[in-house]
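pinned: reference chain
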Amino acid sequence: MRFIATTITLFLMIAGSMQLSHAQTYQITGQVTGEKENAIKQARIFLAPGRDDSSSYKEKQFTTNATKTTFTDSQGTYKIQDIKPGSYTITAFYTGKKITSRTVQVENQDVRLNFKLTILAEELEEITVNASGEQTFGVTRLNAVEGVTINDAKKNEVVLVDDLTANLATNNSRQVYSKVPGLNIWESDAAGVQLGIGGRGLSPNRSSNFNTRQNGYDIAADALGYPESYYTPPTQAIERIKIIRGAASLQYGTQFGGLLNFVFKKGPRSRPFEFNSEQTVGSFGLFSSFNSIGGKKGKVRYYGFYQYKQSNGWRPNSDLDQHAAYGSVQYQVTPKLSISPEYTHMQYLAQQPGGLTDTEFDQNPRQSNRERNWFRVNWNLFALTADYKFSSKTRLNTRFFGLKARREALGNLGRIDRADFGGNRDLLKDDYNNWGNETRLIHRYPFLDNISVFLIGTRLYNGFTHRRQGDGNDGSGPDFNYLNPDNLEGSNFDLPSSNQSVFIENIFNITPKLSITPGIRFEHINTEAQGYYRNIVKDLAGNVLVDDRIQEERQKDRSFLFYGLGVSYKESNQFEIYANYSQNYRAINFNDIRVDVGSLKVDPNISDEHGYNADFGIRGQQSQLLNYDISLFHLSYEDRIGTILKTEPNPNFNNLVDRTVRYRTNIADAKIYGFESFAELDLYQFFTNSSTDTQLSIFSNLALTTGTYSKSQENGVEGNRVELVPKLNLKTGLTFAQKNFKASYQFSYVSEQYSDASNARRTPSAIEGIIPAYYVVDFSVQYSINRFHLESGINNLTNNHYFTRRATGYPGPGIIPSTARSFYLTIGITL
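pinned: its C-alpha cells
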C-alpha cells in the first residue's frame, strides 16, 4: 500500500509539473506605423501557426488560418496574450496598405514585433480569415475598390451566404435579406423560383427596379426594354450577394434601385476535386436536390452545379417542376491573363392558382379559383470574361454576355371576382435574344502623397424581344400553342433596344482618411416597337362589332449625361462617415404598351422617368463585437410611371355609358424620404468581455420611410402616399452559435402600404387596395460534423395568414396569399 501511495504521489507531482510547464505562456507586443512613422490605429493583427517568412502579400486573395486576432489602439500598439511556446506568423492588415507578415519563435520570453506598412498600389479583392472560434455577422460591406469596381462612399451591403442560418433550398428572401435595411419583399413564390425585392417605394416585381446581375453580367429579360428577371440563382450556389443602392447608376446603368449582383462560388483552390450534395424535403411536397463539383488543377479552376426542385404548393393548383444547371472554368493563360467562360440553364413549369378577392382571402386564403393557369420559362445565359493585369497598378477586364430565353404565360386573365367558366385561354409568349459587352480599365496613381484610383468603362448592349398575345385552347393543361398563330387575337410585336454608354469614376484620396469620388456617365438609348395589335369590340352576347388589325411602328432615341458625387471620411478602419448623390434614369419600355391585361390602358405619350438618390450615413464594425450602418436617404422620382383609375366611354355600349379602367401613365413626381439602420451586437462577447467559439448576437434592421406625390396632372393623386412604401419595416432576431451548432430566430414586421397611387383601400377586382400590416416569425438550426451537415427550420412559425402583393396580371390578378407555416429539412455531405 505504501508503494502504491508513493507511486500515486510521484505521478501527481510529475503531472503537476507538466501542467505548470504547459501553462507557461507569453505575449507578443508591438507597434504598427506608416511610411512616415505615424501610428496606425485600428490595424488588424492576425496570429497563425508558423510558416515561411514573407515580408508582404500581394495576392488577389489573402487567406489566413488565424487563431487569434486583435486591433491596434490609438498609439498604433497591439498586444496578443496567452501564447504558448512555438513558431507563429504575425500578420498586420490595414485598408490601403500592403499586408505584411513576419514569422517569430516564442520560447522563454515575451516578443516585441513592430510593423511598418507601406501604401498598397493594388487593392485586394478578398481577405478570408479562417479564425478559430471567430464568428461573423453574415453581412458585411464592400471595400472601396474591388477588382475593377469602385464602391467608395456608396450605400452597400454584402450578404455572406455561407454564414446564414436560413431556408436556402427555397431561396427564402425574408431570411436571406434579413440584414439589408429597407427592402420590401413580395412573397408570391413559396418555392423561391422568382425573386421579388424592392426598396424606397420601388416595385419588387421580379426585382425589376434593380440592375440584376450574376457574376457581373445581366440576367434580366431585357435590361432596357423589359428589366424583369424570371430567373433567380439557387442560393446554395451563391457565395455573396452584393447590393449597391441608387449610386450604382454611374457604373451599372440607370435603375433607381441600384445593383443586385449574385456572385457564385468557385472551386476550392486547395484541392483538385470537391463534391457537395444537399437534399431537402419540406412541407407541401417540397423536394430539392442540389449537387455541385469544383476544384483547381494546375492553371484551371472550375465549378458547376445541378439542381432539381419540385413542390405542390400551399394552395391548390400550385405545382412546380424546375431544373437548373451552371458551369464555369477559369483558365490562367499567363500570370497576367485569365479567361473564364460560363453557361447557365434554367427551366421550370409552374401551375398558378390565381389571385383572390378580399372577401375570399378573409374566408379562406388557401383556396384557388383558377386551375387552368400555367407558366413556363426556359433561360440560357452565356458569358466570357477576360482579365488582364498590365501591372500592380493597372488592370483591364472585359465581359461578353448573352441571353437566349423564353417565357410563356397561359390562363384566364379576367377579373378574379368573376368565375372561370372555361373557354379559350389567353396565351402570352416572349422570346428574348440579347447580347452585350462591358469593358473596364482601372488604374491607381499617386495623388497628394496617397494612392487615388481612376476607372473608365464602356457598355454596348443589344436587346431583342419578340412578344405575342393571342388565344390558347379551352383545356386545362399546359398546352402552349396558339389557336390562330398567323392572326393573333391580341398582338404581335418585335421590340428591339440598344444602348451605348461610357462611364468614369475617380477616387481622390485627399488624405489617408478623406476621399472624394466624382463620377459621370453618358448614355445613348434606342427603343423600338414594330408590329400589330387587334382592336376587337364585342356586344353583350359576345358578337364581334369591330375587329381592326392596326399596324404600328414606334421609335424613341435619346442621349443624356448624368453624374454623381460621393464623400467618405474614415476616422479609422472601423468607422466611416459617408455621403453620396447620384442621378438616376429609367427608360420606358414598349413591352407594356400593347399587352391586353383586362381593363389596363397605357398612355400612348408615356415618357421616361428621371430623378436622383442621396444618402448620408455612418457605418463601422468593432472587431466581432458590433456591426452597424445608420443612414438617411432621399429618393426623388420625377415623372413616375404608375397606374390610376379613370372613367371613359364604354365601346361595348356604343360609348353611351362610362366604364372604369386602369390607366398607366406618368402620374406625378414622388418624393421619398427615409431612415435605414442595421446593427448587430454579440451579447456573449459584450457581457463576458472575451472572444470564444460561443456567439449570441442580436440584430435590428429598421427602416422608417415616407413618400408623397406632387406635381400631378391627374386628379386625385397629388398629396397621396406613394404606393409600396410601408412606414415601418422591421426585422430583428437572435443567433446562437457554438462550434458546429448554430440556431437563429427572426421576427419580421411590415406596416400597411397602398398598392397603387389612388390610395384605394378596397376594390371589387382586388387589384387595387391596401396591403395590411403583417408579421412573420422564422426559426432555423444547423449542425455540422466532419463531412456532414444538417439543417432544419420552421418558416412562419405562428402560422399567420397574410399577403404582400396585389397582382395586376400574372400570377393573379388579385391578392396573392403568402405561405402559412412550413417545415424543411436538409441533409448535406461534402467529399
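why pinned: Helices lie at 2-23, 173-176, 249-252, 358-363, 683-688. The first strand starts at residue 26 and ends at 33.
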